[in-house]
Amino acid sequence: MSMALDTLTSPIILFFALGLLAALARSEMTVPEAFAKGLAIYLMMAIGLKGGVEMAANPLTGEVIRAFGAGIVLSFVLPLVAFMALRLTSKIDRVDAAASAAHYGSISIVTFVAATEVVQAVGLMPGGHLVAVAAVMETPAIITALLLASQAGARKNVAGSQQGELFREVMLNASVVVLVGALIVGWIIGPEGFEPTKPFFVASFQGVLCLFLLDMGLSAGRGLRQGWRQLDAGAVTFGLYMPLISAGFASALCWVLALQPGDAALLITLAASASYIAVPAAMRLALPRAKPAIYLTLSLGVTFPFNLTFGIPLYLAMGQWVGA
Amino acid sequence: MKLYEKHRLEIILERMAADRAGRVLEGAGVSGYTVLPALAGYGGSTKWRRDADISATRDMVVIVAIADRAEIDAALDQLQDLLADHIGVLNVSTVQVMRPDLF
């Protein structure tokens, strides 16, 4: 209980809540678009670098390989579960359900960052390789969703489509390039090479995260205001229970694979999180008939706030429970 | 001053489909077009604004092209296909231009 309270009263969550409430109250406050993009690049670089540096300092163990395998399996399988759950419990049609399901197999890097802060605050030291696991979990879910949509006959080449455009969007979007690129840079430079950049990437990290989460709160609140009419009660409920189902699947895998508690907590968080950057862009290209107001409102307006406030303490407890 | 008649194609389109629309226009022989960011709007019972989601996938743009009617017509069939799936609206109007050789 005290862990949950600590999470809820941490500066990053309080700034997120400020942004969310301001947007819901129709405040005109905005974080300038270019500045927000700069913050996102900073955060990706910082976590990529830190993850790469930690990977350079630690050997590639069986646990690391198992974590990668678990991440890929979860990202492929969870969209199937999400798709069935949505079709059973809401009025969302097959194409929208497939597009939404992709978001729940992919990940939210901000939820991951917030969970990392919480996990480290309780003294657990997750491996740097979890950043790479997060990166590899972005994509498989999109493949599963496209297969689901193909069965519904929803896939076709729209006029002006170009071969390879979806691949470029999925594999070379800004977040993947910066995150994976920084991870490789961190791995090459190692702890000594990282030292001169520490004041910028470590000391300022929490403050920048607060700013970014203020913007995320504004985004989530405005997304909710714009899109809530598109969601029925079943869909909103899905946005709250699906992270718990995903966390359950991930917990079972962590237990079977005997992952460390810190790694388990973060893998559970990754599984429970839903994408709102990489997958929406991919879905606009691959499944333009699917309504963004549904899948973005679900992932950004419902699941993201839930995970950030109530989910992370729960996933941490689950990680500690199933971790070896 | 002498002005010349041309046709102006304007598409208000979701940002993610702008490259596709651009390729259609280029394929139809339109010699140039301009893409402008759209700030906010209302349609389909929904108000939208460009800072509403971090992915920017719901951002809209305005594509403006000026060309001869034949080139515009050549693009319209494919643009209709594009707009059957992607979010957007299109209009064509007659305009007067000063330097017709540019279009």
Overview of this protein structure:
Helix content of chain A is 78%, strand content 0%. Chain A is an all-alpha fold and 324 residues long. Chain A has one domain (31-200, 222-322): Na+/H+ antiporter like fold (Up-down Bundle), CATH 1.20.1530. Chain A is globular, with a radius of gyration of 19 Å. By secondary structure, chain B is an alpha+beta fold. Chain B has one domain (4-97): Alpha-Beta Plaits (2-Layer Sandwich), CATH 3.30.70. In chain B, 26% of the residues lie in helices and 40% in strands. Chain B has two helices and six strands, in the order βαββββαβ. In chain B, strands 2-5-1-6 form a four-stranded antiparallel β-sheet, covered by helices on one side. A two-stranded antiparallel ribbon of chain B has the order 3-4. In chain B, a hairpin with a 2-residue loop joins strand 3 and strand 4 (46-49). In chain B, helix 1 (18-27) runs antiparallel to helix 2 (69-85). The radius of gyration of chain B is 15 Å and the shape is globular.
